Amino acid sequence: MIAVSGMPGLYEIVANRADGAIVKSLENGQTKFAPLRKHQFSLLETISIYTTNDSTPLSEVFQNMKSSDVALPNHESDQKTLTDYFQSVLPDYDPDRVHIGDIKKVIKWYSFLAGNNLLKEKAEEAKKAV
Among 16, 44, 71, 110, fewest CB within 10 Å belongs to which? Predict the structure, then answer.
């Protein structure tokens, strides 16, 4: 699964080309060409959230969200609700470098992945690796 800059949602790479990639939306299944000149591709496994000390991998943030007792807000909620929620699941996130748009994107991605049973447990991944 990848995130493509300038394109909302999550994607998977269908085919590579020298000048970009053909990506398929996980939400609606549509495929489109994403040129390298215009877009950057980020694997979800490589994305981290800035904290006051260093950074925390997105997978760890998702695990915190899954085990949290606080209800997941809608990604369109007001800024205070979103920042309060994010503070509860990642208390040491850096509010100077993590913008409200980033928080909305993380919540939207988590909602989509959890709703479609696409979140992988670390224990499951470790079993598959062995």
Answer: 71
Contact 86, 103 (CB under 8 A): yes
* 130 residues of the chain, pLDDT tens digit each: 999 999 999 999 999 999 999 999 999 999 999 999 999 999 999 999 999 999 999 999 999 999 999 999 999 999 999 999 999 999 999 999 999 999 999 999 999 999 999 887 544 443 444 4
Asked whether the beta carbons of 89 and 70 are under 8 A apart, the reply is yes
Cα 35 to Cα 24, 32, 81, 94, distances in angstroms: 14, 10, 36, 32
Compute CA distances 17 → 73, 85, 96, 117, whole Å: 39, 40, 37, 30
Entry field: residues in the chain: 130
Question: In sequence order, what are the beta bridge partners of 56?
Answer: 49
Phi, psi dihedrals of residue 12, rounded to the nearest 5°: -125, 150
Q: Is 86 helix (H, G, I), strand (E, B) or coil?
A: helix
Residue with tokens 């990639």: 21
